[in-house]
Amino acid sequence: MRRTTVFLDDLLLRRAKQAARAEGRSLAALVREAIWTYVSAGPPARSRLPSVAGSFESGRSDTSERVGEWLRPDPHV
Questions:
Q1: CB of 27 within 8 A of CB of 17?
Q2: Could you give the CA distance from residue 16 to residue 26 in angstroms, rounded to a whole number?
Q3: How far apart, in Å, do the first and last CA atoms of the chain sit?
Q4: What string of pLDDT tens digits covers the 77 residues of the chain?
Q5: What is the pTM of this model?
Q6: Domain ranges within the chain, ordered by starting residue
Q7: Radius of gyration (Cα) for the chain, nearest Å?
Q8: Angle (nearest 5°) at CA 29 between 26 and 33
Q9: How far is C-alpha 20 from the geometric centre of its chain's CA atoms?
């Protein structure tokens, strides 16, 4: 294991220390677990669209041109 330095703001450091103390372990152990969990999850999703976006066809070629006709102009009505 190698030593490294991490810069944390006061609030994050305080909360991390409290969490470590509540769990009965060291701050270093808590940080190692947090980093391991983060890197094990893989890269964050890049797409903001749901995975089904673009999977369906309306059968119409003018959908984007007529969207105003199909959506309610005032969603609160």
A1: yes
A2: 10
A3: 61
A4: 899 999 999 999 999 999 999 999 999 999 999 999 999 988 777 767 667 766 777 777 887 787 777 776 666 65
A5: 0.55
A6: 7-41
A7: 24
A8: 145
A9: 23
Residue type, 27: L
- Length of the chain in residues, anyone? 77
C-alpha span between 31 and 18 (Å, rounded)? 12
Two structure tokens written together for 46? 């890049």
Task: Phi first, then psi: give them for residue 62, nearest 5 degrees.
Answer: -110, 25
3-state secondary structure the chain: CCCCCCCCCHHHHHHHHHHHHHHCCCHHHHHHHHHHHHHHCCCCCCCCCCCCCCCCCCCCCCCCCCHHHHCCCCCCC
